[in-house]
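Let's do one together. I've listed all components of the complex below, 644 residues spread over four lines.
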Amino acid sequence: MATIHDVAARAGVSAATVSRVFAGSGVSQDKVRVVLAAAEEMGYTPNRTARALRLQTSTVIALIVVDIENPFFTSLARGVEDVTRAAGYSLVLCNSDDDPVREGSYLDVAVSERMAGVILVPTSDRCDLSRLADRRTAIVTVDRALHSHPVDAVVVDNVAGGRSATARLYERGASRVACITGPRDADTAELRSAGWRQEFRRFSPTADPDAYLEHADYRVDGGRAAMARLLDAAEPPDAVFVANNLMAVGALAELRSRGLAPPSFGMAAYGDLPYMPLGPSGVDVIPMPTRLIGATAATVLLERIKGSADPLRTVVLRNESD
Amino acid sequence: MATIHDVAARAGVSAATVSRVFAGSGVSQDKVRVVLAAAEEMGYTPNRTARALRLQTSTVIALIVVDIENPFFTSLARGVEDVTRAAGYSLVLCNSDDDPVREGSYLDVAVSERMAGVILVPTSDRCDLSRLADRRTAIVTVDRALHSHPVDAVVVDNVAGGRSATARLYERGASRVACITGPRDADTAELRSAGWRQEFRRFSPTADPDAYLEHADYRVDGGRAAMARLLDAAEPPDAVFVANNLMAVGALAELRSRGLAPPSFGMAAYGDLPYMPLGPSGVDVIPMPTRLIGATAATVLLERIKGSADPLRTVVLRNESD
DNA sequence: TCGACCCCCGAAATCGATTTCAGATGCTCC
DNA sequence: GGAGCATCTGAAATCGATTTCGGGGGTCGA
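Okay, and this is what the predicted structure of the assembly comes out as:
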């Protein structure tokens, strides 16, 4: 591999001049030409590792999601990659599986590689960002906000989404709308069920909300089990708001296995169900602007990397159908 | 950030000794203890950039897929990431969108970053790997093999899969099975349709295969349009083998829009349809061991990175249901 | 003609780790 | 006690780019 010194020797100039040619400043036209010609002939590609060492920062960004196989995160990742690639950055993909230990080791790698920034779906509110902060590495959280450590965040209006999904089910004639939400320590789960609770109180004032609220784990099987518990109750609901896409898939499977199905049994889901073209399912969907969330997070991150000192901000995107 | 010299100073040894402690060789117990203590106190994290520069190789691997939003590649990526993470490598995600230019610029970055290896879904047979080869960067192709430039590859038996899917449709009573395959320059498209052709000749000896073969672009809309063309023909088929998952989604949508649907109109698809639990669709699926393909490719790549000089190999995985 | 100034350019230091080479130390065995 | 050997340690070179600092040469105005 040709180095900057090889090119310099061939062009009859110093390495400093070659470096300046590529940085684009303060070199006479003559030398620019001869250097570019030499670089071309030798197939010179600057060594980004050396550059990163000298500059103390690389052009690599980490994206830490729960699981890339969840279509929500897939689409998010695509939005992030589109923006970072256009800006000349590489994207490192990390699956935390919601495990704080895994998340921590990915964060360590980000520090160790001197990455320029991190886009993070935090596993919990108490994830340790001190190492990143020491190095002033740019951080943006997505989907979930982080209260313990103030950073930029890009989220959706979960309460509004939960409210509108629930209201829609009541408007379509449901008399009692249950809710399947995520784990107690996930703030999205709490917010979405809070939105549901507001509408439930309004439309079913005599019923006890807690009897119609199930917590599950944001996964298919959890959604299915929660749906089963709701249906087995003494006074089962006639509609359900499910707080994420995977649990909705599970809930739908449970309903179908019992001969129930939307729209006769009402169902609304937070986030697109994957590949709905496969069949009109009668499920009311609160679509999330997933690619946009990713692209926005990447844009905010890149601004921080460029040195923006604006105050921290939380970007709240509206769900497309609110 | 503490450097190796800071730790050395604190421990009262030289940087060389600290380096050896972490490399794990030839240091007395006393010094090992004092060095580890010092490193711990100072929160020392080795700088991977410096390490990569010195060693002329990093612990980063590039994964270049067509589009991470296609569930086939998503699952593949997950398989790759599981294996590379366990081995201490980071994974850079690249979407080529089947564009050779994009692919080329990702390959340039891989060289420029001195990445340890590349796992590639090649956009075409004439993609330029010479730069990688110059640096002896390890390469494995997945899904599609590369004939122009011999490298390790992990693929599935596309002909067998096409054959078994087609045969199954005939066995279920279809009298004429059409085929929607991918672009002409994709070898998977040719192989899968070749499998279909064999069975078509056997079961429909009097019909012209070319009248029942459609080429599309491996995308949803292309599949839908191809299905429409088949149905609008003078003698439409009564079943169809679709060569990838996205086109199957499109074809299914077209069928449903015309009041047709599996299983009365037979359909078999190569590769899992995403989230089939959403409903029994009557589609015959040739499941692909997607995660395993990714994991296998990663394993082969890691062996090459470690220096294996075994002859090149093409791993052919069987489809799960063959 | 001389100073002031600007523009180009190269030598050398720098980033933080690894590794070679050579020196120091301690041990065994005659 | 001393030769021979193994073990441990540190100084210094190295990887390839960037950037500071200063020198050389040209222009301009007085």
